[in-house]
């Protein structure tokens, strides 16, 4: 025991020595960071991690839009099949319930198509917003805040990685050439 405190065991150290009260030797402070790592290296790594997070969030959003689109397309297909069965019946043989169900199906299909249109509009809006964000980020990276020295390939920035946008994927999956629509 030193300085009236009990010695504790931390990790591989047998005990912690406490400095005398009132003295704080800065040379005894040990950083968790590797001594060869600079602040610029850490900031560069944090920037890369943040960029990866943004890309993953965007991809998650695209996948959610795609999932919603697929579900809407399946529901539209199901309703259209049911409607086709009712339409196939001769008009004279249809009951009032069948005629009413036919109208309900048309209205449900119409609502789902409108919902899908809104979804496609949302995807397009997101795509444009992301494009604007990428443009702003590229401009930000081009402006010289201070002279930077890129020492490693990992610190160099490139144009943002562009995947197919959600709108493109929706068009391919169930878009303008979709047999459902």
From TrEMBL:
Residues 1-139 form the BMERB domain. SMART domains: DUF3585. It comes from the Eukaryota. Residues 1-22 are annotated as: Disordered. InterPro entries: BMERB, bMERB_dom. Coiled coil: none annotated. This is BMERB domain-containing protein 1-like isoform X2. It comes from Apteryx mantelli (North Island brown kiwi).
């Amino acid at each position: 025991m030193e300085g009236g405190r009990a010695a504790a065991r931390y990790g591989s150290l047998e005990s912690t020595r406490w400095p005398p009260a009132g003295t704080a030797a800065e040379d005894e402070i040990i950083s968790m960071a590797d001594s060869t790592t600079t602040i610029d290296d850490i900031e560069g790594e944090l920037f890369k991690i943040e960029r990866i997070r943004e890309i993953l969030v965007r991809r998650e959003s695209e996948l959610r839009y795609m999932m919603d689109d697929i579900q809407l397309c399946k529901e539209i297909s199901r309703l259209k099949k049911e409607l086709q069965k009712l339409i196939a019946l001769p008009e004279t043989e249809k009951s009032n319930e069948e005629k009413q169900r036919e109208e309900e199906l048309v209205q449900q299909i119409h609502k789902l198509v409108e919902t899908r249109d809104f979804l496609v509009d949302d995807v397009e809006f997101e795509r444009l917003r992301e494009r604007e964000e990428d443009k702003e980020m590229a401009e930000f990276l081009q402006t010289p805040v201070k002279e930077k020295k890129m020492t490693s390939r990992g610190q160099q920035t490139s144009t943002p990685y562009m995947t197919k946008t959600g709108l493109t994927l929706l068009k391919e999956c169930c878009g303008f050439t979709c047999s459902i629509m």
